[in-house]
Amino acid sequence: MSPWVNRSTAFLGAFLLALLLVVSLAGRELAEARCYAEQVLPVVQVDDLPREARETLTLIKQGGPFPYKRDDVVFGNRERRLPAQPSGYYREYTVPTPGARDRGARRIVSGAPGEFYYTDDHYNTFRRIRE
Fold first, then answer.
1. Same domain, 46 and 35
2. List 29, 38, 55, 122, catalytic entry
């Protein structure tokens, strides 16, 4: 067999092995993201929320009026920090931060009736609100 064929075969084998490794790693990262989203999230009791969060929760349950233009908009859950649901399932609301010049980092995200999540770090981590 010619040396060219042997080199081509070796190159093709190495390429396929590298491709398999990349696909395997990508699949593992996707599986880890799904596991994180589907695991049981930490819980926070309503009474342990900041006063502003409890007030926002009351507004959500009353249907508003909401003080921020971006309240009651769809939360996309792009980072999959919350359990996977169809697009449009989650909605977000601002929890005012005393002394902040903007909306701050605190939010409540709602899903089905009675399903609420709190984040105080702009969607990096969530805790399920238990009433």
1. no
2. 122
Q: Is 52 a catalytic residue?
A: no
Q: How many CB atoms lie within 10 A of CB 88?
A: 9
Same domain, yes or no, for 66 and 5? Answer: no
Chain segment 9-33, per-residue pLDDT in tens: 666 656 656 556 555 555 555 455 4
Sign of CA dihedral 29, 126, 117, 75: negative
Q: Residue 95 maps to which CATH number?
A: 3.10.450.30
Same domain, 77 and 65: yes
Single out the catalytic residue among 38, 92, 115, 131.
92
Joined tokens for residue 40? 């049981």
To the query of whether residue 122 is one of the catalytic residues in this protein, the response is: yes
pTM recorded for the entire structure: 0.70
Q: Give me the half-sphere count of Cα atoms (radius 13 Å) on the Cβ side of residue 58.
A: 8
Q: Which of 111, 109, 128 is nearest to 40 (CA)?
A: 128
Q: Is 38 helix (H, G, I), strand (E, B) or coil?
A: helix
